[in-house]
UniProtKB/TrEMBL annotation:
Protein name in the entry: Thioredoxin domain-containing protein
Region of interest (Disordered), residue spans: 31-52
Regions of compositional bias (Polar residues) in chain numbering: 31-42
Transmembrane residue ranges: none
Organism: Brassica campestris
Family according to the record: Belongs to the SCO1/2 family.
Domain of life of the source: Eukaryota
InterPro entries the UniProt entry points to: SCO1/SenC (IPR003782), Thioredoxin-like_sf (IPR036249)
Pfam families hit by this protein: SCO1-SenC
Amino acid sequence: MFAARRLLLSCKQGANQAASFLRGRRIQSANYSQSTRQGTTHGRTDLNPLPVGTAQTFSRSRARYAAPALALGFTGFLAFLHYNDERRAVPKGQPSSSNSSGCGCGSNTTVRGPIIGGPFTLMSTQNKVVTEKDLRDKWVLLYFGYSFSPDVGPEQLKMISKAVDKLESNHDKKVLPVFVTLDPVRDTPSHLHAYLKEFDDRILGLTGSASAMRQMAQEYRVYFKKVQEDGDDYLVDTSHNMYLLNPKMEVVRCFGVEYNPGDLSQEVLKEVTSASQ
């Protein structure tokens, strides 16, 4: 971060020096033109012509200052981008310092207060209407994905199932796993039911209309985008957000794809235990 700032300051200093040099040359040129006009008006020749080669020297000098300024400007711009990315990154195991965008998934993040989330009305795999009120008074592990995910989705569901098992068998803590699809066109209630049954019967699958899914994704700061493949086939590019919600339906933790079942169960256990003390 400090290196980026030093590069930005160097860029500004180089640009200011180049600008001052060019302004000085323009002032000299203007004075020369004014002096020429005055000499012509009064019928006398009192000009001191520039020596041969001065114009070339000026051109080389300008290029000598302009090139470093452009190079420093480009370097400063890259440093600024790196600084922003570095500032947004949240290492695993550290709380997020940003309160503007919810939790930065991809890390173990503590969320303070109801930063993200909101009301929703979706359909379960049993064709029953489910709202956020139905999930109150429960600890919920909420995951956003889609059944046609070729790799990340299945791995995340396996991890969730094993983590929930550990919490129940080793610590007698119940957490409801909830799967929200980002592909409601293909993930119908019947299809989603058959898909989730292959992983764990305890997972509550939720689907709905495209507008309802889009609204919930916005409320929970979930990124997703349809990526067209050959023919009618397509994938869904998504951030694979996983949230831990307390019984008040407040998001308290966000987990990235780098977790294993043991780590996930331990982090969830910490939250559940601390809330009951």
